[in-house]
Amino acid sequence: MRRALLLPARLWIALFFAAPLAIICAYSLLTRGDYGGVETPWTLESFARLADPLYLAILWRSLWISTLATALCALLGFPLALFIARAGRHKNLYLQLVLLPFWTSFLVRTYAWIFILRDTGLINTVLSSLGLIAKPLPLLYNDGAVLIGLVYNFLPFFVLPMFATLERLDPSLMEAAADLGARPLSTLRRVILPLSAPGFVAGAVLVFIPCLGAYLTPDLLGGGKSVMVGNLIQNQFTTARDWPFGSAASLILMLASAVLLAAVMRSRTARELI
Amino acid sequence: MNRRAFIPTLAAIPVLAACARDRRPRLNVWNWSTYIDPAMLTGFENEHGVHVRYATYESNEEMLAKVMTGNSGWDVVFPTHSRLAPMARNGMLAPLDLSRLPALGNLDARFRHPAWDPDLHWGVPYMWNATGIVYNRTQTAALTAWSGLWNPALRGRLTMLDDPEDVIGACLQKLGDPFGSTDIRQLQAARREAIDQKQLLRAYLNAEVRDQLVSSDVLAAQIWSTTAAQAIHAEPKLSFVYPSEGYPLYCDCASILKESTRTDLAHQFLNFLLEPDVAAANARVAETATANGAAQRLLPHDPVLYPDNEIYARGVWPTALPSDAQRYRDRLWTEIKSA
Amino acid sequence: MRKHLLATYSALALLFLHAPLLILIVFSFNAGRFTRWEGLSLHWYRAAMADPQLADGLLNSVIVALIAATVSTLIGTAAAYGMWRHRAPWLSGSLYLSLVTPEIVTGVSLLALFQWTFRFLHLHLGLATVIIAHIAFSIAYVTIVISARLRNCDRSLEEAAMDLGATEWAAFRRVTLPLIAPAVAAAGLLALVVSFDDYVITSLVAGVDSETLPMVIYAMARRGVSPVVNAVSALIVVAFGIIILISQHLQAEDESPT
Which chains touch A (3 or more CB pairs under 8 A)? Predict the structure, then answer.
């Protein structure tokens, strides 16, 4: 009976994940049709095109921004997760608070940041009415805005696994360290941080991979002035109507994500957190 | 109430609501956003006893992606004129039966035998607009040409459209080259212009820029005449200009998809759209230029939307480019965007 | 002192997470279009309620979310339980892979699948394709939540029940299921949210009659700042806040006898 329980999932994934993926693999090896779509001959041209410095630069840029966003999430998310893990009775409430913004649409959240960062947006209006600035600060349509948007959207993805790790930490370890004379900062550095490494890894993966494929945030907050891998793929499937090339780029992106995830899965403790 | 009852109760409400959907014959129309007067739709529904399922899209590509393999479910779509020929060639469109469109005579003379479809075989011209420049009269010197958008004084207060055809085309026209050029050397030069301009550029924005123009965040923008008219209505300090080097014109046409099984009703709908009062009402809501001459006479003349003959002569109707030229431009666009 | 530092920091961090939404909500009551406060007004709420596209979008979103969440919770729970008892490396691997697939790729691949099969089946894109897509990407989330909970469960409990004469199904229903019930509820809620929130995949596989709320909001946002979007967001936040409060209350109710 138990094996049969796996059947619905196996069927659904096979039909609606594996089969579509196979089609994308096929597309990546075909040629672009005259007005979009695909046609034979079979060719590796799409993959070869990806080796072009232009696209490698785009990939590099995406990796860089994603790494930055992940680092910021880690920096901002770790203390928050630590606080929640130690909050005792109110743990659940704080977790719900962290997740509450997620109940609204992703677009609405990104749109809120446009509202805040524009030249006539909230920050500039407040600062100029307080007389602190003469001209509006250019807060929107640059990499900084994109980073804010990414960090804002993915922070909970870091906080949750981090919290899960920290919650399982044995408090007696920290007591032992204190008994042995360590000051709080030292305990943090030499006991807590090393033990929370799986949480860092899990959280980083859950932030980094979606960041890599993001396209709405860079599009809306970046003013269309920079191209990340997600934008490139989206462009190929819409404006450029070059499905083979878009498919090839998608596969490469997925390969990178899968490799990263596989590396993380090797660490057993991290695996238990994802 | 316990948890077990809560979810099913919540689920029952929309299911019941869905069952109450109506059973009249359907016509599925997919159009650009704010391109029709809802009252006109209701009028058509009542007149013919049908239900019009109306939805909107924001770009030709979005529409093409769904329509391409012939099972999107839509009956009527509104492609831009340059897409008609390729769509027809790829078997996406049903040929129009002009005998079922008696109101065709209402079209403006310019659109009765348009260059892209002289026999009106594939699409009935619906609304048209152009790409030009909007600028804030009180905060910047008057602009008359594309080259004005490369003025360093506008640094950070300038936007261009997020559209490869418009941006590359503007760069080509600035250099005196044809809008639809396929010459590699000319395109390379246009690319250099675009990348030079990027340092002055605030962002690549489409219709969203309207509010930033009104609030003076942005002082000059490459923009469609529709959006310009809306911005000027909201803020009279703005001016629209058709660039002296030339500019592109676009016409959205009503077409019937080949996959449609309701071509009779679709023809009736297209004919309905051609009636003067209907077309005028739609043009008022869309705030854009209508291709319907009879309707134009019912509407106030807006020089932003309806350029006079001399200015109109400078306009170019872009055509679909050959595949490799298109591919080259796509790559250029990626290069420009990632520079 | 460090405790206070941590608490202050966390308060600021939570503020960072909530501030944009609070601001949106406050300005949904602004009579003017921009950031100058021009007086209190319900004008945008009235506009939001009067918009038929919004109403249709909301209805579609709710229908899709409820159906997709229910089905994916069932399938995902079954899968998590099955994988707890038997190794299923291919299924487990595919589920993780589906999690890390960028949304645009999921969406486009499903569009391609539908386009190919519909050539032969003469079907159309629509609400059904949206629901299928949502179930496809939600299963992974559900499975992960329930797997995490199952990891802390003792397999021997079920075996003990069977030793005492229970069938496999009875052992599951009366021993394991009650233990994972909170996780199932949490997973269902997560699937609901993920489905309601989705834009990219939905926009790629939607057809006639299947615009969801995020699609309508996106189209509005593309046309420029409109406080109608603020009003809609405020309504969504309040609605979900109420759902959360109710679900919290129900959870507390269930837990109070113990």
Answer: B, C
Structural domains in chain C, CATH included, are 59-255 (1.10.3720.10)
How close C122 gets to chain A, by Cα (Å)?
A: 18
CB atoms within 10 A of CB B185: 9
Q: Would residue A115 count as lying in a domain?
A: no
Between residues B248 and A203, the one the model is more confident about: B248
For residue A123, tell me if it sits in a domain: no
**pLDDT for residue B78 is more than 50:** yes
Overall number of domains in chain A = 1
C133-153 pLDDT, tens digit each: 999 999 988 888 888 778 777
Let me know: does B319 contact B180? Beta carbons within 8 Å: yes
Residue A16 forms contact with C (CB below 8 Å): yes
User: CA of B2: which chain C residue's CA is closest?
Assistant: C250
Given A34, A223, A240, which is nearest B205 (Cβ)? Answer: A223
**Domain ranges, residue A235:** 54-86+141-273
Look at A135-139, B1-5, B97-101, B161-165 and tell me which has the smallest mean pLDDT.
B1-5
Q: Write down the ipTM of this complex.
A: 0.84
Taking a C-beta distance cutoff of 8 angstroms, is the pair B181, B189 a contact? no
Query: Domain with A262 in it: what CATH number?
Result: 1.10.3720.10
Report d(CA C215, CA C224) in Å as an integer: 15
For residue A24, what are the contacts with CB-CB under 8 A and spacing of at least 6? A247, A250, A251, C105, C108, C109, C112
Sign of the CA dihedral with B100 first, then B103, B104, and B105 last:
positive
| A241 inside domain | yes
Residue C122 reports pLDDT greater than 80: no
User: CA–CA separation, B179 vs A262, rounded Å?
Assistant: 50
Residue at A118 is within a domain: no
Count of CB atoms within 10 A of residue B130's CB? Answer: 24
